Amino acid sequence: MTSVQVDQHDAGNEAVSDPAEGGEGYKRGLGSRQIQMIAIGGAIGTGLFLGAGKGIAKAGPSLILAYAVAGLVIFVIMRALGELLMYRPVSGSFSEYAREFIGPFAGFVTGWTYWLFWVITGMTEVTAAATYMTYWWNIPQWVSALVFTLILYGANLISVKLFGELEFWFSMVKVTAIVGMILICAGILTIGFSDAGDTASVTHLWDKGGFFAGENGIGSTLMTLQMVMFAFLAVELVGVTAGESKDPKKVLPKAINTVPWRIAVFYVGALIMILSVVPWTEFEAGKSPFVEAFSKMGLAAGAGIVNFVVLTAALSSCNSGMYSTGRMLRDLALNGQGPSFFTKLTRNGLPLIGTSVSAAMMLVGVWINYQWPGEAFNYVVSFATISGMWAWIVILICQIRYRLRSDRGELPVSEFRAPGGVWASALALAFIAMVIVLMGIDKDARVSLYAAPVWGVVLGVSYFFLRKRNPQSAAFAKRA
Description:
The chain contains 21 helices and no strands. By secondary structure, it is an all-alpha fold.
């Protein structure tokens, strides 16, 4: 893309008479507190509340180290995204940057793959929510999954401000619960109340087979990285909100810079406290370690409360999926890489058709819950992981190319440059490559690698016919 195209593109985005509207016609309805909580809540979801149970059972206390190392990589990715956002904050940022710094086909693949990621994540989260409901009532999982999908779909049709408010309170519940659990565990370790008071000790982190207590030692720790990376998926959602943020150049850097302490407190801190109070051998895959911890402590009421919290966490992530999928479809349509009817907005600035189509696709998750209620979560997690990591790969590649061009004076220098620059992003790419290799080794996660080439072929064929029918789709500039 030439600098002239950049200027034309930016000029087109700025030709908006209403300052309350974003560059793509969206309403700037997301305020600072909402963006901050979306950023915080995006890192707290099913991967932690439910998926951590499988990780603990597989790797023992060393899962803490896996979260810490992966968390550093996530911070590199988020700072790379922040550098791009401050250069040009746009809704549908990943596919926009892919089109600019890699090529139109990359933008096409990224937009549709990120859409697929959130559709699958929506299935994952609604599956988790349905699983949590069985804690209280013995009702079919598919019934709960259907009801939750319809409720969240309805909520996303009202306004972006309502979406922001829902995410604010969903995130507030999650944050309050985790901080509360950390304080309770600290009280048990120091004062000794509850059923676990007599046995609670930080020595549980190494005296039950060692810190690397998995069956294959450090190898087991490495094999949990796929689940760990899944837990961090959606932290990049703040990039999608850029077009609807009231003051993106002020709010987004603050949100991104909270990543290290979010990971330190909500992942590393929470797991250290839980595994100190209850030995890792007491947990099992498929059950939330947070709910199980309260049960082992003899705090039955607390277990019910935590189950409610993890339920809201799953619904929060599904709500985010409903939000982002409609925006990605509209971004693709605006660039001639999707059906033109996705470009239409309601009076409230909402992409109704894109959100509706995405919600309909998420209903496949209801069918999965009906067919395989016991294995539904594992089936969809691996698909979500590989499609979500594609967005991270694109962010890093785009940041590398942007930094090289800005350093040469070809593009404006971002106000929020990523520490470590090109080298940090290259190391993060190497880490993601390692995780993909590990997924190929893990028989449970390997299925997603089988599906990725199939999805790639579908996109390749689709793009070929798209260009043939509409050559303008290969251009960067938005269609009128």
